[in-house]
Structures
1.
Amino acid sequence: MNAVVVDARGAAAPWLDEIARQGELRWRVHKFGGSCLEDLEGFRRVLDILQSEAPVRCFVVVSAVRGVTDALLGLFERARAGEPDRAGVELLISQHTALAHALAPDEARTLAAGFQRDGEELAWLLAQVRTAPRGGYGLVDRIAGIGEYWSSRLLVAALRQRGVEAQDVDARELLLVEATQRGADAIAWDESARLVAAASARWPEALIVAPGFVARSRDGGAATLGRNGSDLSAAAFARLLDAESLTVWKDVAGVLSADPRLIRRARTAPELSYAEAEELAAAGARVLHPDTLRPLRRANVPVLVRSSRDARQPGSRIVGVPTGCGAARAVTLEEDTVSVSVRGVAGSLVLSALERAGVQPRALVQCNARRSLDLVITAADRSRAEPAFAGSLGPFAQVEWRAGLALLRAVRAGFGGDARRMAALYTALADLRVPILGSFQDSHDHGLSVLIAGDHAHAALNAVHARLCHGTAKLAVAVVGTGLVGGALLRQLQQHPACGDDLRLVAVANSRSVLIDAEGITPDTATARLNWEGKPLGVEAAVAALQDSDAHVKILIDATPAESVARRHAEWLAAGVHVVSANKIAQGTSLARWREVRSGCRAGKTQYGDAATVGAGLPVLKTLRRLQGAGDGLLALEGVFSGSLSFLFNAYDGSRPFSELLAEARERGYTEPDPRADLSGGDVARKLLILARAAGIAIEETDVVVQGLVPAELTALPAEDFFARIDEVDAQIARQYAEAAAQGKVLRYIATLDRTGKAQVGPQAVRRDHPCATLSGADNLFVLTTARYHERPLVISGPGAGAEVTAQALLADALEIATTV
Ligand SMILES: NC(=O)C1=CN([C@@H]2O[C@H](COP(=O)(O)OP(=O)(O)OC[C@H]3O[C@@H](n4cnc5c(N)ncnc54)[C@H](O)[C@@H]3O)[C@@H](O)[C@H]2O)C=CC1
Ligand SMILES: N[C@@H](CC=O)C(=O)O
């Protein structure tokens, strides 16, 4: 079956039919720059990447080995100066021969012989340079392109050595260029398309490798595509092959949100539009040349920019309509600029004067009504612009210059129309007390530029980048525990609209490993990445990641049952990290530990989110605290505080063993990781202690009378042995149930507390119409009698266990802290 090919260019493109006839599989084009092929290790990384691509149809475009094109141009210049450098030629031959021996021993001799032959030809060409017409420049394309041929041959041989079917093709037989044009405009698209279609019909189902940078001019001579020409070659092949994608492999992780030399925390922009990427390129970001993007944009071929040094990273994706969060894709800074304000003449006159002087304005605002034009040019261009104005603007023009400025640009489509984003930019500058001397929205609305004094430039870039590109960095979160509750939390985080923007997940940990990513972890991928990339660093590493983060609010979420994690809560709180916990140990064990948490909060001016620890997020603690705050003291508290025990006793009627119901409660995620924590009454006792202390009743663990359901001899057994003897629990429950039934009652696991601190938890036989007897599922019940809720108590009831409700309590606590800090 033939693939249906739609010509995204909207023009007739007969060659596409030919490509389509060759089968359903679309090509993926890969481009490896010299930085990827810098040495043996670089080649090996490239080979690994390509091996993992099979069996997709790959068309690979390669640059010369790093430094080789410059070396060839150096040889050319020395030849022009009459200093032929035979040793330089030999050096290149031996460099490539060594690579051949290491990468493809089976074909090394043939490759070496080829390099030697080409080397002889190179030496001959260099010898002709001095006497050749046009100062030898007619030969430079033949000389400069040799490196690409050599690296493509090396790569093919190395692939074959690894058993990958590969074939090299000569790009000079496929890409035709007009000598009079430059960049993408130079490519003779229709003729090149016919050549590619005809050649590709003969290509086997193999990986094809072509040298980048080189092409053929219409007169049949060798041509090259200029500096960074390999990127353009790859873009041209991607368009001509109607490729599924073009991946440009570099030594950086993608398109960065700022110049990494200025912003240490510059991060990879996950997605950009072609226009945004072009805007960045025009603003000087060394990503992809706009010439590379233009043909792809027209053909709508997605471009991936990835690092061959870390092929696991997804890199940046450049597409027609990007999605994703983040207020700006990137922030750029042009230093050494000057502003010029011209009044009293038509703007068109000013612009043509600049054009004649060869000066490209970096930003401009025209006000027709006031016949004024404000524009920004580079300081270097001023020496050409000033005389041009003097000669052509006439006597009425008022020209005002201001030097020592910098142009800071936030790149993102629609930025200038989004009040929230603009406000974020202005606020970042206002916080630094940096005056905005002018603001310029580009005509295509791909971003907004502001003009500031040059001496503020770096601080301003930092602040704007932190505010716009790092999410708003309002809230950084570390999640410890990725089990039932932690897993549900990660899913909820993924769905939350603030995620990735205002809220950044910087660390995830479980009992085995920790994953840190200051740029933000996509919650969806967190567990997979933790398993794959995590390191056994301990929870402290997650806390350090929070502390390193530039977010305004840093929150550690504890979704573990671990004592070792709970033990550190107070310390982290004191160090400025807010803690949100489902883990009840820090507040529900000794009074001293509860007090440490309180003093941690005071010392670090931090908050402790504990809604999940009682009633799985039912608004019990919050209500109790509000009553306390208003002077309404607790007189008594009674109810069912365990979701799992509620479920067990609501369902138990003697027809199924208690242990069978326990298995179901575990399956539903109601029990503690070790269900004996529930059956022993320990979990309920912890909740009672947390509630009592929140109500100002400072009782100790030993003050709670606990009657459990686990026979004493089973409490200390390893879990496996306990489950092997679970029928002993069944027998005990069956007995207690029968005794209660004989009195016309049912069993419920009830907690009680009075204002004197008398506290107990345990099974009770209650009448069938008792409020605790009328619950269903895993519902909890909290009956609060207070000074003001005296005649009729305040009752809170609802699901008291389960991963989803518990996770939402954690998330809600974290968001509440973020908004109240
Ligand atoms: N299941 C429920 O309905 C509710 C549970 N909770 C509490 O939530 C917490 C988690 O419960 P589940 O998710 O059911 O447990 P789980 O056993 O499914 O998951 C526990 C997670 O914590 C990690 N962990 C254990 N020790 C650790 C350590 N020392 N350092 C780092 N990570 C460690 C484990 O690797 C695992 O990822 C418990 O404290 C539980 O009491 C609170 C309210 C309701
Ligand atoms: N295991 C607990 C879960 C919530 O804390 C319970 O059963 O209530």
2.
Amino acid sequence: MKTEELIAKGLSLPLMEAFYTIQGEGRFTGHPAYFIRLGGCDVGCVWCDVKESWEAGKWPILPIEEIVAEAVKYPGRLVVITGGEPLMYDLGPLTSLLKEKGFTTNIETSGAHPFSGDFDWVCFSPKKFKKPHPSIYKVANELKVVVFHNSDFAFAEEHALKVNENCELRLQPEWSKSEKFTPLIINYSKYHPNWKISLQTHKFMDIP
Ligand SMILES: C[S@@+](CC[C@H](N)C(=O)[O-])C[C@H]1O[C@@H](n2cnc3c(N)ncnc32)[C@H](O)[C@@H]1O
Ligand SMILES: Nc1nc2[nH]cc(C(=O)O)c2c(=O)[nH]1
Ligand code: SF4
Ligand SMILES: [Mg+2]
């Protein structure tokens, strides 16, 4: 099979990096996890903290067996698929292989592409820069909105109306604007208590 065909079937994927660390954000903050960061993103967030991931062609294309063979070397059995935008790819084969090896599977996604894969936890972080695909709303376990501008509170509420009723709601300050927005988020959460706060704790700990 040609490389493009292997990628289209989700059997080989562009891997930017993979690392064993502590989940810094959201519901699983503080949990040891193996991160698989796939290359490629077409969303274009102005404040993205991994812009070097955007160009898929820069990264080696690896068979999913090789990606998983590396993951099993570490003691943790929580895996986080991120990117880039991981839903640019069919994540069915990768997640089924991870499940076979006993992993709990989490994803970090903007939801801008059709949902795929077998995930135990879906963290959906919608962006103004590219509209989410409708398939994400029923599967999202967590809505994590990055706050970079005052209008992001209204953007967050718009999405809260569309996700399923069990979806957990979180606001996360954009890193460079966190001095301005963290106090506003704290106040917002106190008076809209269905919203929780998520911080990028790995950046405070200075770990990947
Ligand atoms: C780098 S993204 C990769 C996954 C996917 N493309 C997405 O945006 O959800 C991982 C998480 O980091 C968040 N993020 C990216 N840049 C950020 C920044 N400068 N400050 C705060 N959160 C950021 C995203 O919203 C997302 O929740
Ligand atoms: N420690 C750590 N936690 C994270 N949670 C989401 C991340 C991501 O970039 O998707 C991330 C990351 O890059 N590092
Ligand atoms: S969707 Fe995610 S990876 Fe893509 S630009 Fe936005 S934050 Fe970065
Ligand atoms: Mg990150």
3.
Amino acid sequence: MTTSKLAGYYDAPEGVDVRGRYDEEFAKILTRDALEFVARLQRQFRRQIRHAMESRREAQRRYDAGGLPGFDPATRFIRESDWVCAPVPPPIANRMVEITGPVERKMVINALNSGAKVFMADFEDALSPNWENLMKGQVNLRDAVNGTISFEDRERKRVYKLNETTAKLFVRPRGWHLKEGHILIDGEPAVGCLVDFGLFFFHNCAAYRANQGQGFGPFFYLPKMEHSREARIWNNVFNRAEESASIPAGSIRATVLIETLPAAFQMNEILYELRSHSAGLNCGRWDYIFSYVKTLRAHPDRLLPDRVSVGMWQSMMRSYSHLLIFTCHRRGVHALGGMAAQIPIRGDPAAHAKAIEAVRSDKLREVRAGHDGTWAAHPGLIGEIGTVFEEGLAGRENLIGVVRREDAAGICEEDLLERPRGRRTIEGLRLNTRVGIQYMAAWLTGTGSVPLYNLMEDAATAEISRVQNWQWIRYKALLDAEGVELALMPELFARVVEEEMGRIEREVGMEKFRRGMFKEACSIFVRQCMAAELDDFLTLDAYNQIVIHHSSAGSSL
Ligand SMILES: CC(=O)SCCNC(=O)CCNC(=O)[C@H](O)C(C)(C)COP(=O)(O)OP(=O)(O)OC[C@H]1O[C@@H](n2cnc3c(N)ncnc32)[C@H](O)[C@@H]1OP(=O)(O)O
Ligand SMILES: O=CC(=O)O
Ligand SMILES: [Mg+2]
């Protein structure tokens, strides 16, 4: 963490101290009333959040002692009884294609104009949560909701404005585990997701409901939950926000990402907690793979094969998505598919066609399985994905009430835990290392989603690289090196890191390598891969490097 001086200061209420850089535009977001709203949420829910995080650690201790996640006998009545969530709001009945992306100004406009039904504006996997990104993101979303957002690219002499018809906005706040180090509430760092949610809700609730939500909204995506008690906190936050804005209960809707292994056993319970606020579930496949390794880190019989081999075709991944579709449709809500990592490739038509075909077949699998919609990483994919889903939905808005997937009712604990099969190779180790370091370097310098080797990489995909290296090092995995088996010892990893750093330097060029933060990224990544105890998240340690405190009037630094 570093500190520096600034000119203006934010008008913060009692007990709130804003230590991020002062900016007149940010001050219109960080008003006294908005900060008071965030502080009230934090004060009301901090005990429950602390308890939920301690419960995560307790569950992990059980898995570390040899236990496995499973369905909770205590909530069998929720899984077995008949209940449904609140009816789907008409403006979001059709969610065939959803584009996702960070809350960067030009990308927000491009995403809203992309032709997708929904735009998920991301404060999470796709965003490096530095102060500038977060606050500019809030400014951008406010302008988007008001319909006034524009952006001028002077170099390219291009002005960006919203089209007549735009995607419906969903906002993804950070996960429960992340703090906002630039805002202190009663001396403690604010809870990151309450800052993201609170500021967005406070400034946009009324305009969103009038301009986009047809009386509903705002809409959210909720990431990385591990248990229904965390969904209960969100439900209470929504109740509190609705009361304070004097809007009807059930106006806010949220789609929960099922992207942790423990949450796969809690789909019904999560929907139940949020039943008056639910907008379904989504298969967050990348974090899910990461979570499989993290949750089962003490189980040497659960080593994953190379990252490229852990796709939706693996039995465990298929079981998880089928159970999600069955659960959502039984409860009357959308079952969203996930993100294919391929993106359009310029200047190589054959590679481009291959990438598009990979996305097309992933989407075909999803719609045939019964998903109501899916995610797109890039505007260039919307047309192809839209065609697949339009054909699959055959004129319907969604498949709720159409595809029941009763066959998935019998998916059991073993199905969800089955280890993915495939080879572990030295090439896999090299790729993880190259990708992990380059992603971390981008993140440290303010970019949270990047194209690497023609694939979309973000915090979730980078996590797989990190924990997979950790797991292989921890258990001295045997790796295939062109037909020879090598045990992954620390010396071998050190040699791979050195060689891959050399390759990164050659690929990005000496100048960019020198100016970038590749060395810092390498040292964070290597420390985490070699740690005796697996760090919970890649971004927790690295976050300290992007917190910059400025002194404010009345604060003592
Ligand atoms: C695991 C998960 O959580 S998935 C969800 C989180 N991850 C994401 O949301 C990733 C979203 N995608 C992206 O960030 C980007 O597509 C990347 C980083 C993968 C690739 O970005 P780039 O290399 O800049 O793409 P490219 O140069 O082809 O972009 C072409 C145009 O499309 C725009 N664009 C690309 N992706 C997006 C997007 N997701 N949303 C809006 N606009 C986009 C670019 O801004 C650019 O616009 P311009 O022509 O007006 O200048
Ligand atoms: O957030 C999505 C994921 O795949 O992770
Ligand atoms: Mg994720």
4.
Amino acid sequence: MLHTIDHLAILKTHIIFLHLLLVLSLLKIFNCLLLLLVSGSCFSITVSKDTLNQAIWQDASIFIDASRQTTIEDVIDPIKTPFRPMIKGDLNPGVSGNKYWLKFPIRTDFDDPHHWIMHAEVSYLDYMNVYLVSDGEVVHRYINSDQDSFAQRSLDYRLLNTTHFHPANTQYTAYVETGMLKADTLSLNIRISDVVKFERFSKREQMILGMFFGACLTLMLISALLGWILRSNIYVIYSGYLLTNAFLWGFLNGYVFQFLFPQFGPFINHSYHIVYFAFAIMAIQFSRSYLETKNLSPTLDKILKWIQIVFTIGIIIRLFGIYAFPTYLSFIAILSLCFLPVVGYFCFIKGATYAKWYIVAWVIYAITLFLSALAALSNTIEWGMKPLLAAQFASLLESFLLALALIEKVKQLNSEISIVTQDSMRDELTQLVNRRFLNNKITQIFKHLRHDESLSLILIDADFFKQINDQYGHTVGDKVLIHLADTIREMTRPQDVVARYGGEEFVMILRTFDQESVKTIAERLRHHVKTKPYKDEQYEITLSVSLGVCPIEGRDLTQAIQYADIALYHAKSIGRDTACIYIPETHKVDVIASTL
Ligand SMILES: Nc1nc2c(ncn2[C@@H]2O[C@H](COP(=O)(O)OP(=O)(O)OP(=O)(O)O)[C@@H](O)[C@H]2O)c(=O)[nH]1
């Protein structure tokens, strides 16, 4: 808001903290790059001491069992079970409730025994049973379910896995039985590694991801602290958004289960969709707050609010144990975020000129989220689950760009405030800018407005103020004016201007509002003043105001004030405590019906 010099100091604190957020975001991006570097490359299906994360699909054949009735005894019979060579397109079957059997020969190199580990690619796989068959007999059975606690896993690792000590000079035919118990997305990309090599790899992976989540947590705490110190909701909401974002990736990586809920297997199945919903709800909440959609476009704000309500219902339904509907809805929730850049652009056109970095941030994240959903839901793209890692990387880039977007918003506010630091342009009593400011500086403030952007003006006049002076004295009258100025200030967005225009008269200049929005704001203001009486030790005085609203055409402030004055006069004449709008096209005044 353009009224107190104290804001400058607060804004400087905002900027210092925001730069700290930027540094942390950069650190997180660096972590993610490291993660990409350590994700090992593939060698051969024959396990050697160098085997690390080798994908098995190239050497495997596949059998898809839609009935889910087959057992290992059925599938080892080649006549009963027609396996076919596996192709890359088999890796991501999309949403499926089938049972999948993968079959491949496995041995160790030369005469060395090897302890190997086979693991899934995604954390949300329901089961992955491994059978080792020799001479038509099952000689080893490893049953792995996500319902088991982590202590029951072969290796205490974030993904379903089997380890086996493979003797030298022994060849098995390995069968992997995998799928989802209820239709959902899955990946059949199963990898194999030498255990010693893998443990070294997973330690590095853990360290990098630990740094990643540590940086997430720090970023979140700083934002929350910033919100608390500066009494600014936007940072608290940003912090909440970062929390759900970190949880989303923590769940998808399987780290949340490994480190936070290692004993709570069944929780895994039930939590993914809830996290998807929570993430979408918080992303929309941050956008509503950052873009100030409530003031800029109440209709858009209402739509976003309803979308949040639908997603909240999704969470409730999921908590009641219903599976299919919330599953699809949760994917829609993630995909709906792809529209946030459009929302950002719409608000940018409507006056949120600070939203450039917000739009860029969401374009990047939206593309990768869209590709991840496409990879998870269908087989249309070749890259398997790689878009998921790209989206995790994009999430970091996004948190960096959103911090930049917050800085941009605060900076714009800062530059506007610095224009009003001269005392001569401030009203001493209320600390609002004064009439001189409006006459001299308003053109400067709005110079960066585009031609198609429109402004509106609201003239606000206290009702029966003379009576207040007469009844309680001039000193109380002064305090009541300060109270009224504060009440109006509370209802003002940072990019708007509020000034004391005369004795008990105030002017509010709003940026890029359509007529319906201005009417709503005027009505809300009228109502707000009435419900916030002045209080001191002795008196409680209920106030009311009359308001005259009009658009500012051709940047002509003088004419706009004349029009608004006509509307205000009308509001006074029909009984006060009313808002009226002057329509320049018809030169008529309309009473704004209460929408509250
Ligand atoms: N205490 C105090 N009173 C002020 C100040 N500036 C103007 N006023 C008083 O505000 C009152 C305005 O009175 P009027 O213009 O008659 O309007 P009103 O009593 O509010 O009646 P309506 O506007 O018709 O509802 C006058 O009594 C002024 O003396 C100020 O800075 N402090």
